């Protein structure tokens, strides 16, 4: 069942916010709700409205206070408050003045742009002159055509340009005799005269100057607004928490986890939180991290040196076998470079061609049939070019020979000594790393617990709103926990001396409310089936119990076998009790719990239909006998049972749909919808009309329908069918949808209900298949005992317990999802996940 959710709002002071969150996390029943922009805006608007009232009260208070405290010196706090308030009012007045100035400049810029567009270079003179007049102004865009008609054919020049979507700038020039007539015409058309006194000179330069002023004023407006918002934020500015702080904590936690991994520490259990703060945790982690990296760098350097020495040692042994008794002197000298390495013999010809005619000396010693040791001496100026050429010939330079004695035996002794020294250094560094590991291990538990709490708190803060002084925490709690949570918050309020506010509210229609499921333990496993389709919405009906029961029954009807049912139940117990880890992504513990119910249902229907490990036994159903598959009446009876079960299941789904629509206030859908009362009437009429047409017996002696054939069209079930179709047809007239939708919906619903009913025949089909397998086993046993045991009893039972079991389970799930749940279930909700520490 679905438990209604209540919205909890907690307001705490900023200095107590983390303490409140920790208490709520320890309580573990609230799912934190991230504030939407709409909620932040609403809170801010409410506070701004209060601020305006407070401003008026404060001004009145200041007047009274000044009257009563003449000659009384102000305290520093009072003086600071007055200065802040005066600064706030000064900024408001400045902002108002700047905005007025900005609007005026925008108006001027519009006029200047219009004058430029009509072809003016300088600001035209306006007024009445000796022989002519000139006038500028604005008319509505709608009357521009009338203005043109009125002045058509008269000695008047009309220039115009649009200045907005609805207004047009016009410049009228005419002879002085037409002045009065022109003014009357313009006034009748809503003309607004403009003065150009504020504008003078070259229009392009005027435009540039206005734009510069606008830019400067806009920047000043933004500065003033920013300062005003900062002042407001000190007491009304609600905003969501920024995530910059949590990023630092996450990076620190990642570094801690990396250290835990590279230092091979055991999984740290969450111990009691020790006295440690963020700075100390960061200091310890960074100190250990840097120290470990330093030691690791030394180890890598030692390993690299050791690798070179081992390589040199191996090369010396090879050279010694090749008859070399003295090593070349390698290194860089004043003008020369001497180096050596290994090269392929085939590449030496290319190298010889390269050195021909160049000041390069080299000595080659073959060390086997494919490789050679080559010693090269060249001028420093040629060293880069020589090395580049050798690199293209797969030359591998050996640097481990540098600094060794010329004598081979002495060189080997020096290498052995250096390797021994490196091993000693490596051992000392490893001991230091082990000491670092032990030191860090002693503090890792406390740091782990601290970072866990810190991360959880910062994640929770991201889902809250804050102002300069307050923190607003929102969340969802189950309705049945309101009383206990209220008592907890009341005690917390007393502990904080009343500095905590809380309120429980019903969710608003536009809020996304989590769905809180609370089902009996025996049915809780079936929430897995529901979750696969989608989580129920908080206003839907919880289909968990009814879906679990129907799925189990349908599987039992498809897979009726006492022996197989017992086997499946035993396997289910084993999976649920002993296989607690997921294998190949499959949770065998949950699967085992589902299998227990399936096995019991299979065994129950196996007893009713007389099957035990594909061997026929006496059925308990009075209408069946052993070998019922060979009797057509038994098969028809089974098909009828499947159809009756399917019709009852669809009727149940439609009834739940009606309940959901009524619960949501959707009366038209509940009565006229294809998944409402109209759908129920259509399905009942369709089924009963078919029963009357064929003469179906539902319960012998109690519910029997006579075979009416074409007379069915005048029977009462047929009129129920027609009533259902008619109700669906007229639904668009009440829901204000397209009227043609009703016809399509009526036909689609009629066809889908027919398909749904026939779809349930698969229940009988799979039961018949299972009985047919039992018949095959029986025939094989009669024909050949050995084949009957091998192929029949062993192979076919294994086939039934694997392939047939999976197919029946999937087909039962398909009927549940597509024939049953689609009638009433949307599955668009979100699960309730309380925040816990």
How much beta, percentage-wise? 5-15%
* Assembly of the depicted chains: single chain
- Uncertain stretches of 5 or more adjacent residues: none
Q: Output the structural class.
A: alpha+beta
Shape: flat
Helix content: 55-70%
Main pleated sheet: 6 strands, antiparallel
Mean pLDDT: 85
Radius of gyration: 46 Å
Measured between the Cα atoms of the first and last residue, the distance is: 27 Å
Please give the number of β-strands.
Answer: 22
Helix count equals 24
Q: Can you give a write-up of this model?
A:
- The protein is of the alpha+beta class.
- Helices cover 61% and strands 12% of the residues.
- The strands form six sheets. Strands 2, 3, 9, 15, 16 and 17 form a six-stranded antiparallel β-sheet that branches. Strands 4, 5, 6, 7 and 8 form a five-stranded antiparallel β-sheet that branches.
- Helix 15 packs across helix 17 (588-609) and helix 18 (632-663) packs across helix 22.
């Amino acid at each position: 069942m679905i438990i209604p959710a209540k919205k909890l709002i907690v307001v705490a002071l900023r200095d107590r916010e983390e303490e409140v969150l920790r208490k709520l996390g320890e309580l573990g029943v609230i799912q934190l709700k991230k504030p939407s922009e709409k909620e932040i805006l609403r809170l801010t608007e409410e506070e701004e409205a209060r601020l305006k009232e407070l401003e008026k009260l404060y001004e009145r208070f200041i007047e009274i206070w000044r009257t009563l405290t003449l000659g009384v010196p102000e305290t520093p706090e009072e003086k600071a408050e007055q200065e802040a308030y005066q600064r706030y009012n000064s900024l408001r007045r400045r902002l108002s003045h700047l905005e007025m100035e900005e609007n005026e400049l925008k108006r001027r810029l519009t006029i200047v742009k219009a004058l430029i567009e009509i072809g003016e270079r300088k600001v035209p003179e306006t007024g009445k002159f000796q022989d002519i007049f000139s006038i500028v102004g604005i008319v509505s865009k709608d009357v521009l055509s009338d203005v043109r008609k009125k002045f058509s054919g008269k000695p008047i020049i009309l220039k115009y340009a649009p200045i907005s979507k609805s207004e047009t700038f016009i410049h009228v020039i005419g002879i002085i005799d037409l002045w009065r007539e022109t003014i009357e015409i313009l006034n009748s058309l809503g003309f607004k005269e403009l003065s150009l006194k504020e504008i003078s000179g070259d229009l392009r330069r005027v435009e540039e100057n206005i734009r510069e002023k606008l830019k400067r004023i806009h920047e000043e407006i933004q500065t003033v607004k920013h300062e005003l918002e900062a002042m407001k934020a000190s007491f009304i500015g609600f905003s969501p928490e920024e995530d910059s702080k949590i990023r630092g904590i996450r990076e620190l936690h990642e570094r801690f986890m990396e250290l835990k991994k590279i230092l091979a520490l055991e999984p740290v259990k969450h111990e009691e939180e020790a006295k440690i703060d963020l700075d100390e945790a960061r200091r310890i982690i960074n100190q250990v991290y840097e120290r470990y990296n330093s030691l690791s760098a030394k180890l890598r350097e030692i390993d690299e040196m050791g690798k070179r020495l081992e390589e040199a040692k191996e090369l010396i042994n090879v050279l010694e076998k090749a008859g070399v008794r003295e090593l070349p002197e390698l290194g860089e000298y004043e003008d020369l470079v001497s180096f050596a390495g290994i090269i392929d013999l085939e590449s030496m010809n290319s190298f010889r061609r390269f050195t021909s005619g160049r000041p390069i000396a080299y000595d080659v010693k073959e060390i086997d049939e494919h490789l050679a040791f080559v010693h090269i001496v060249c001028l420093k100026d040629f060293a880069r070019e020589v090395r580049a050429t050798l690199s293209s010939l797969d030359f591998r330079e050996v640097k481990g020979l540098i600094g060794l004695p010329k004598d081979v035996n002495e060189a080997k002794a020096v290498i052995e000594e250096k390797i021994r020294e490196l091993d000693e250094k490596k051992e000392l560094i490893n001991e230091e790393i082990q000491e670092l590991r032990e030191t860090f291990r002693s503090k890792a538990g406390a740091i782990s617990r601290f970072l866990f709490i810190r991360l959880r708190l910062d994640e929770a803060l991201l889902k809250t709103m804050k102002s300069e002084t307050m923190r607003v925490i929102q969340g969802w709690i189950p309705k049945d926990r309101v009383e206990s949570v209220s008592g907890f918050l009341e005690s917390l309020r007393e502990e904080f001396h009343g500095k905590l506010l809380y309120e429980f509210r019903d969710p608003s229609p536009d809020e996304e409310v989590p769905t809180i499921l609370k089902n009996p333990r025996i049915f809780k496993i079936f929430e897995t089936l529901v979750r696969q389709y989608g989580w129920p919405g908080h206003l839907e009906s919880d289909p968990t119990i009814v879906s679990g029961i129907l799925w189990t029954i349908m599987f039992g009807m498809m897979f009726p076998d006492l022996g197989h049912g017992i086997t499946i139940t035993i396997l289910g117990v084993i999976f649920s009790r002993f296989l607690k880890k997921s294998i190949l992504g499959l949770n065998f513990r949950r699967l085992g719990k589902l299998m227990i119910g399936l096995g019991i249902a299979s065994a129950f229907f196996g007893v009713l239909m007389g099957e035990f490990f594909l061997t026929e036994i006496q059925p308990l159903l009075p209408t069946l006998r052993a070998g019922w598959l060979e009797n057509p009446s038994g098969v028809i009876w089974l098909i009828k049972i499947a159809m009756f079960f399917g019709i009852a299941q669809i009727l149940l789904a439609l009834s739940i749909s009606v309940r959901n629509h009524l619960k949501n206030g959707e009366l038209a859908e509940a009565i006229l919808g294809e998944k409402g009362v109209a759908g129920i009437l259509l399905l009942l009429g369709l089924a009963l009309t078919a029963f009357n047409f064929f003469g179906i017996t539902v319960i012998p002696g109690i519910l029997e329908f006579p075979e009416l054939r074409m007379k069915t069209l005048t029977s009462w079930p047929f009129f129920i069918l027609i009533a259902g179709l008619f109700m669906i047809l007229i639904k668009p007239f009440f829901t204000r949808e397209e009227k043609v939708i009703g016809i399509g919906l009526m036909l689609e619903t009629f066809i889908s209900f027919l398909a749904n009913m026939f779809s349930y025949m698969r229940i009988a089909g799979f039961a018949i298949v299972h009985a047919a397998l039992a018949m095959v086993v029986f025939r094989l046993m009669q024909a050949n005992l050995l084949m009957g045991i091998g192929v029949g009893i062993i192979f076919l039972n294994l086939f039934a317990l694997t392939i047939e079991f999976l197919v029946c389970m999937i087909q039962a799930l398909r009927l549940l999802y597509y024939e049953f749940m689609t009638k009433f279930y949307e599955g668009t909700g979100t699960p309730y996940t309380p925040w816990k520490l």
